[in-house]
Amino acid sequence: MQNQGSSLILLFVITQTPLFMTSYSFRIQRCVWMWICMMGVVTSLQAQNPSEQVMPVTGTYAITGAYVVPAPGQVIAGGTVLIQDGLIVEVGTSVKIPGHARIIQADSMYVYAGFIDGFSHAGIPKPKEPSRSERPKVKNPGTPPDNLAGIMPQRQVRDLMDPKDKSIAELRAAGFTAAHIAPHGKMLPGQSAFILTDGSHADEMIYQAQSGLYARFQGASGMYPNTVIGVMAKFRDLYRSAEGLKQHEVQYASSAVGMARPPQNQVLQAFFPVIDQSLPVFFETPKLLDAHRAMALQRDLGFPLVLAGLEQGGDLIPQLSNGEFPVILSLELPDEVDEEDAPNSGKASVNEERDQLFKRKLEAYEQYVSQAGKFAQANIPFAFSTAGVKTKEIRKNLQVMVEYGLDEATALAALTTVPAELMGVSDVMGTLEAGKMANVIVTTQPFLAQKSQVKYVWVDGHFHEYEAKKKKKSAVSPDAPVEAAGLWSFTVESPQGTVNGTLKLSGSEGDYEGTISTDMSPDENTLESIELEGNILTFSYSLSMGGDQASVDGELELDGDTFEGTLSVGNFGSFPIEGTREGGPQ
Fold first, then answer.
1. pLDDT tens for residues 439-464?
2. Cα(432)–Cα(429) distance, rounded to whole angstroms?
3. What is the secondary structure of 488-512 as a DSSP string?
């Protein structure tokens, strides 16, 4: 069993419950605990991810008393959604609930179809970029090996994704039950896939193994193609070569007599479904010029094209109004313009150049954040991409878009029905209807409301419950400097004694990372969801226990070089923790 020291807290809690508090000795309690672990009962007691509880008691659920949103623009007040065996069985106000169903009382809450991420790299670890000294030497930079030039269209998500990557759990906690994902890389990183955001291995999560071919205008370093023009020329060359190879294969299959056998070329063969028009090319086009380049290639070669991750596409609206090219808009937004730089209203300017700069910045910002609203006004459907966006910023960025002209029904469609249609899964996802996959979310208020939180999520009928973190108000002035980074030693007081440990934090506010461990195990657990509000530091981490996961939430009140607070282990209790800084920020 791994992480025995960290998981000791969970063991202490269970062995101190009334079921175990008998006249038996501690040795007998320990034996009973070991027997429970061997029988697998502990699985149902453990949370799967931070702030999340998975309770697989039954496969039948009835969400009752809620505002049910079957599709964008529709609302059923006091509705019920019945889920059974991974499917939505019935939606309405007079649903007959089976006796064995688990009742989810969602009075005044809102029920939506699970959100669909139109494009991201969720679940695929980003490879480390080699330093100049680590880069392999290429004999002829003009004709480098395909893999070094970033040309790997044959790569598949199945071979690259990590189901335990925290980005998947974070996406699910934000309400996304499915995602269209692609590998990291340069010009042609690989093929994209459509996955569900729940599962223990890739085959369990992948819904479509091949959803498209992912392409970028990103050249290689120090070799061809290393410029945008080079990338475009190389793409044309590969496409034309793939057409020739495909034709050769067809002719050889028809009559091989007297013909040379066609060569096997995985790079070119990856283009065959694109040439057949059965797979689109998802071209990453954040800038206006990128979109123009992708459309120029499409008109030259004729492949099905999707503009993905579009950030500055307002000027493309006239060209996109015919629906020829599907669009996936980026959810990443620039920082808001600092109002302190604004000219003083009604007063003579002391710095006209600065005022003009502020005006240009404000115009650029407003054009950026109003893009989705303009697409909606032009009746151009679009999905959303979460690539490059922190999950905690997704709802906030949507709220900004709504503030700048995007109506809420269209925003919801961009998260549900539009990506479902784009990915060809609208018959099973995107709306709450009988017979569709049980991809469902419940929020405490309308999703785009200021204080709304995701409370329940079902992915293919698998249930996840999330508890909102209750943060303490800082006891010190919000302007007082607080330094959380450093090496901390701590003790946790459990019912059976003191557990010693080490907390390592690096980074700064908004971008912390760290680990936690105990003196009973050398293994370090990676901290997640690290946030500092005033002098209150919160975080979560997962413990591995015999292949299962347990969740721990920490809340610490920092006071100079000391802290005190609690570690909470699911529903089994909270334990006091005290710590001292042993070293400064790394």
1. 999 999 899 988 899 999 999 999 99
2. 8
3. EEEEEEETTEEEEEEEEEES-TTS-
Q: Distance between CA 261 and CA 256 in Å, rounded?
A: 8
The token pair at 125 is: 């670890």
Question: b/e for 396-427, b at 16 or more Cβ within 10 A?
Answer: ebbbbbbebbbbbebbbbbbbbbbbbbbebbe
Quick one: CA torsion of 577, 581, 585, 586, rounded to 10 degrees?
A: -90
DSSP string, 356-399: HHHHHHHHHHHHHHTHHHHHHHTT--EEEE-TT--HHHHHHHHH
Indicate whether 381 pLDDT > 80.
yes
What whole-number distance in Å separates Cα of residue 530 and Cα of residue 162?
A: 22
pTM above threshold 0.70: yes
| Model pLDDT, residue 523 | 82
> DSSP state, 254?
H
Q: Residue 92 pairs with which residues in a beta bridge?
A: 80
pLDDT band at 14 (very low <50, low <70, confident <90, very high): very low
**Cα four-point dihedral sign 289, 293, 298, 303:** negative
Residue 342 has a pLDDT of 63
d(Cα 32, Cα 27) in Å, to the nearest integer? 9
CB 431 within 8 A of CB 417: yes
Residues in Cβ contact with 353 at an 8 Å cutoff, skipping those fewer than 6 apart? none
Both tokens of residue 490? Answer: 């701590």
Residues 6+ apart with CB under 8 A from 430: 71, 113, 116, 416, 417, 419, 420, 421, 436
Q: How far apart are CA 183 and CA 165, in angstroms?
A: 14
Q: Is 33 exposed, middle or buried (0-12, 13-18, 19+ CB in 10 A)?
A: middle
Of 498, 480, 481, 497, give the one whose Cα is nearest residue 489: 498
Sign of CA dihedral 170, 171, 173, 177: negative
CA dist 348 and 65 (Å) reads: 59
- 225 upstream amide cis, omega within 30 of 0: yes
String of b and e for 186-202 (b: at least 16 CB within 10 Å)?
A: bbbbbbbbbbbbbbeeb
* pLDDT tens track for 146-183: 999 999 999 999 999 999 999 999 999 999 999 999 99
Contact 444, 103 (CB under 8 A): no
Rounded to whole angstroms, the Cα distance separating 535 from 480 reads: 9
| Residue-level pLDDT at 353 | 76
CA dist., res. 555 & res. 576, Å (int):
10
CA-to-CA distance for 548 and 235, rounded, in angstroms?
Answer: 45
Are the CB atoms for 5 and 517 separated by under 8 Å? Answer: yes
